[in-house]
């Protein structure tokens, strides 16, 4: 039967929602849609703990379930039964509650009808020499319980479990990590022991259920795998410290940090996803921690001023989850493209942790992945371009007793980092690396300046390409260029028509007064009208008024001036000679002004262009009254005086 085969039963009684949700999540996980934890928390089911346990168990027992389905030929006989729903129901019946609800739903009735066959085949399996199974996978990994020391002390918790009938197993005489693992493997029912590395962690036999335990509901005990406890245990911030949890949800490490600080200090717990953020807040609330400041933002973009005081940082970014036991049989061959994307994000967030927080002293990077691309290679790439932190051997923080280290392909980086491996450490798969800030005079032995220079060159080239693209296609630049061209055209026209200047128009008109003063008046008005139309289209009402005043001068005034000039014709001739003689001096000044204007380049900045436009506006306001140079008819040889043109009255 295909994985995606859907059930076509017509149910008179529906299957409980818990099993239907679990079947859908199991199918999505198998098809690579996400991890069990991620998909479970995305569901709106009220009992996420039971949902997670059900799906996880179905994957842990996938070998046995497939064997039972094969031997009973269940899916071949019951062709309408959904394969994923069948696996979930078998998991619940054989390794979960041991029974299914007394329901009339057809799928449940079908599975119950095969119960005796399942148990018979399962019993024969262990006697069959042709079938071997890892002891750890058969029994399941141990159940780890972290005691919330914010509510109860370790001694109180130990007494509580002993009162319930549990027997505390003391360490062996060797008291080594290897001997501890042997004790865990041989742990009998109703027995528990304290962890070898993490003081507040207790170890119980695999399959022990605590979801209904009073201590779990009150927040006294927290169900947290040992591997997940290692980053905070290694970071070990002292009370009163300022700590940043960069990827905080669901809140296991956050509450562990608060307990390590003894609720004295600050823990900034940052989570981007809104749904996971709500889970984080609930977890913190149940734990009783008051020193946690939960922030629903992207840690790479949020700018909290208080972050400058951060001293200790945990970096536990999104990863492939290949170390989770419930995923070991799902994705045996990693997707290279997905790994590259994940590694890119992991490098980015770790580099941010090492560079953005000036007071950071110690940083722990961890993933629940067993892929070197997400672990040693990420550490290598970050250290090659950072000379502020150094890599510290993580074994220093686990009593100098550990078994699995990083890959030898990464030389010292592999020696300095740790792996928790399910088949050896009896935990989920995990990777841990520890960074400490360099002291004065110290160097990062993995720093490579050439790599940093190479990265900078790549960034510079990318910036250049981006700049060229913007220069080619940015509309704001096009508008700016258009304004410059228009402004320069205005400048050129103003230079060609010196009548715009205050001195220029007076002297130019004075040179043309001799032949006919009336003619000169209309010439000037024509020029003024042309300039005003070209330059000031937006202020037509003002320009038109000015032009009308210049053009329609009362004829009596013009006639009287003409008659006076005729009477003194001989004086005009002499005056013309004087004017002609003075023309050279007069013309020199406009030429100099032209040169000054010509000094302004056509590629002036927009700011300079706007300044010139403002100046021209001011000059325009001064030109509202046009002056014409006349000749004093009574006084011969006396200096010329200026007569203002009579403005028309509307």
From TrEMBL:
Residues in the active site? 368 (nucleophile)
Report TM segments.
none
As for family, the record states: Belongs to the class I-like SAM-binding methyltransferase superfamily. RsmB/NOP family.
* Signal sequence annotation: none
A Gene Ontology biological process term: rRNA base methylation
Detail which positions bind S-adenosyl-L-methionine.
Answer: 271, 298, 316
Residue ranges of region Disordered?
559-625
A GO cellular component term found in this entry reads: nucleolus
Q: What is this protein called?
A: SAM-dependent MTase RsmB/NOP-type domain-containing protein
SUPFAM superfamilies xref list:
S-adenosyl-L-methionine-dependent methyltransferases
**A molecular function (GO) term:** RNA binding
- UniProt KW keywords: Methyltransferase, RNA-binding, S-adenosyl-L-methionine, Transferase
- What Pfam families has UniProt attached to this entry? Methyltr_RsmB-F, NSUN5_fdxn-like, NSUN5_N
Residue ranges occupied by any SAM-dependent MTase RsmB/NOP-type domain in the UniProt entry: 133-438
